Amino acid sequence: MKIITIFLFFLITTFSFSQEYKLEDAQKTTTDLLQALKILDLPEGKEMLVDLVFESSKSFPIVSSSNLLFEKLFDTDIEEIKGYKALLEIQSLSKANTPLTLRYLLISYLDKKENKWKVFSFRENIDTEREVLYSKKGLTDDNDSRKMQYRLRNLAYWQIMNGELLDAKDNYLKAFKEATAAEDKDFDISTYLTLDKIIDIRNLQNK
Questions:
Q1: How far is CA 159 from CA 9, 48, 132, 133, 155, in A?
Q2: Is the pTM of this model over 0.90?
Q3: How confident is the model at residue 95 (pLDDT cuts 50, 70, 90)?
């Protein structure tokens, strides 16, 4: 009986884990996001958006139509965690109501607190690996006028975009220490709270 119980526990655990990072689950969040962005000028669209993204205070475009060009689950620097990346061609409007065709990059992660995929970033297409390299160079650039905590925070953001979650955690903590030492009361690391939902920092430290 004990052997059967252990086997069933292993089977359920394995099944649950495999469910967490299935491509179709991430795809559903993308589909729902695009639907919300079609009606973003309505209260219903804003209400839908809140449930689909980590930070609903960020700016999102109204999307009249879209075409998926590429998508995949990608590995991160934490073995058991994967991210989702999609490249889309969208039709939107400029501030002057001029029709625009743009390529947008979407990055999503599983929210471990809620066990559902959420959008981390939806922005015009950019090379995230290159941005990580630029941000690292910025840490030692004497011509960069930004305070060190803001440079570190920027680097951590791009590292999350690029799947470098452990490095992002370390740089957010360094940024917080820099801000504390400088008595920078305006410094905000809300994205660190998002990172906690993705990697579960306390559980990670206990491993």
A1: 35, 27, 6, 10, 6
A2: no
A3: confident
